[in-house]
Each structure stands twice: as structure tokens, then as C-alpha cells.
Amino acid sequence: MRPNRHLMPLTLAWPMSEGDQRKPGFSEFVVGRTGSLAMQLSIVCCISLLRLEGNVPVVAYDGAVEPERQTKTARIEPSGVPQTAFADSELRLRFVCHDGEAVPWQASAARRPFSSGAVVPKQGWGEIRLQTPSVKDGIGLPIQVAVGDALCKVLVLGNDPLDGRRQWAEQLQIVLFDRSGKTAKAFEAIELPYRQATGLSGLGAVTKGMIVVGEGLSLDEHRGLDRVLCQVARQGVPVILLRPDSGDFTISDPGPSRFELRRGDVGERIDSRTAGDLRQTIGFRVAGDRNGPVLRIAEQSSDYAWGDFRFDDGRGRLCCVTWNLLDEWEASPAPRFFFVRLLELVSGGKDLPGGKTNE
């Protein structure tokens, strides 16, 4: 094993007498017969040279290589651990078990244990069921579940992502175009105010606020929707197109002044707290025809999940996203908190954190 070139030699000091012999493998530094100051300095040096690699403290010393460390396969590994969970609800964690022994676990929040037990393997699998703590709406409480050698981290969130922000939500003046009614029910579940647009003519008349197109729409069945949405975006109205089921969406001329296309991992930049629990089963590809760029919906999760098109020097905006938000709206806090973060981003005219747009 190569010595780490960033490590300084370890120096020990001790008072010497005439019979003292030099200790092999160590350097020697002696101050007088008491050696008290030198010993204090050497203790500081020893502490500073201790380091952790994984869970193993390693000490480097003169003329010697680092000690060999034995690794073992963890008895249990997480498989199916959510990133978020509702407060006051049952949380289920699944594990792959490498042997048949029961493995103890303990859940804690703010360094205080609140639940414990043991995972009993059955056919190579184990499961933990625990009740999550209560939290105030709008506040996230990180909890940790230690299971054998594994540590699972889950963020506990309340039911209401708009707690204390009703006035802000009203000021958004959301106009919803939702033929299936599923997105409207999701909005009502979190008491997000909106008004319904009954047709394309109603959308085309919007001059303030923002437009949200409900999830699950077939673009081919609503001819002209792309043209109307591009028109209002050019007039300065932000537009969010939630995951369409199928069809093409043409960005008609005059085209955007700038745009950004990203795949599913961009969710971490929108909201790192919740993105890990989102699913993307479809995406879109970008093609072109004589009328302008075309977003073509495809059943490939590896395709683009985020398209951000800016008009009129950035004041107008059209965003297309393809995450499945409604499927888990009632089962997980992630979709609703992620969607509220999306509203903040688009309505405020903000760029994605740490990203650049294509000119």
C-alpha cells in the first residue's frame, strides 16, 4: 500500500535517561529531562494526525506503511428507502438482508431516539415500519434510522406546502387548463387558489398571473394549444405545462430568445429535498419543422424532463416538465412540495440554481 504523501511523520517525545534506547520506526525529540512541554506538543501532533477512512482511524508514522484493513460485506443494505415522508404517518423502509440474523434498528430525530426494534429477514428481505413524528406544516424534520451498518436519512414534512403562504399563492393568480380534473383536485387538496379556463379562447385572453396546464393532456387532441401558450408567454405571462401524455408541442415563431433543456437529474437543482422521490416515466425530444422547434413526447425516461423557453428578454416564459406528480400526490409529500418550488421558480423569473441557459 502506498504511503499517503499528504501525511506528516508522527513524532513522539519522552524524557530520556542514560539507559533509554531509540525506538525503531519513530523519530525522537527530547527537551531536558522532564520533557513536559515536548510531551504536550507531541500529544497535539498525535491527535492531529489521526484521521478517519470510512469508520477506521488511521495513524501514519515514520518508515511504515498504513495498516491493512479488513472489510466485510454489510449484513443489511437499504433498498426502497424514500427521501421524504409525511408527518404522523407510517413509514416503511425495505432492506436486502445478507444473512438470516435479526438486525437491531433505532430511529432518532435531533439526536433523540423515538423508536426502535429489529429487522427480521424473510427470504432475503426485511422491512421496518415506524410512525413518523409530528411536525409543523412548512417545517422539515430530518430523521435518521440506524440499521446495523446502514444509516437511512428521511425528511419528514407536513401535509401543507403552503403553510403561512396563502397570500403569496393568491397573488400568483393561477389560471388552470385541466380537462381531466385531476390537477384541479390536487390543487384543492393543498388549498391552492386557481380559476379554471374553459377553452383556448379563455387562455388566449390571459394577460396577468400565470397559466398551468394540467397533467395527462394529449397534445394532439388539443390542436392550437401550443400556439396559444406561446402567444401568452411572449406577452409576459409565465406558463407551466405539466407532463403531457402524448403528442407534439411546437414552439412557434418568433422563437425564444434563450432556452434550457435538461434531463431528469435537473430535479435536484429545483428542489434537492424532494426530487429523489419523483418518478419520470416519459420525456420529450426536440425536433424541428418549418414552424419552429417541436417538443415530441416519448415514452423514454432518459429523454428531457425540463424545457425552459424564455421570450421577450426573459419576462415571458414557458416551462415543460415531465415528472409524474399526481400519481404520488396523496402518498408522498415530495410532489406537492416540489410543485410549490416549481411555482416559485417560474413565477419569479428565476434561473435554475447553478445552471446556464442556451442562447
Whole-number tally of structural domains: 3
CATH class of the largest domain: Alpha Beta
- Helix proportion range: 10-25%
Looking at the structure, the CATH topology of the largest domain is Rossmann fold
Shape: elongated
Q: What is the string of SSEs from the N terminus onward?
A: EEHEEEEEEEEEEHEHEHEHEEEHEEEEH
Please report the total strand number as a whole number. Answer: 22
Distance between the termini: 50 Å
Biggest sheet strand order reads 14-13-15-16-22-21-18
Q: In DSSP terms, counting alpha (H) and pi (I) runs of 4 or more, how many helices?
A: 7
- Low-pLDDT regions: 1-73
Mean pLDDT: 79
Radius of gyration: 29 Å
Structural class: alpha/beta
Beta-sheet strand percentage? 25-35%
- Characterize the biggest β-sheet: 7 strands, mixed
The multimeric state of the shown protein is single chain
Architecture (CATH level 2) name of the largest domain? 3-Layer(aba) Sandwich
Walkthrough of the structure:
By secondary structure, this protein is α/β, with parallel strands linked by helices. It has 3 domains: 11-58, no CATH class; 76-157, SOR catalytic domain (Immunoglobulin-like); 166-347, Rossmann fold (3-Layer(aba) Sandwich), CATH 3.40.50. The protein is 17% helix and 30% strand. The strands form 6 sheets. The protein has a 7-stranded mixed beta sheet, with helices on both faces. The protein has a 5-stranded mixed beta sheet with strand order 6-12-11-8-9, with no helix packed on it. It is elongated. The two termini are 50 Å apart. Residues 1-73 have low confidence and may be disordered.
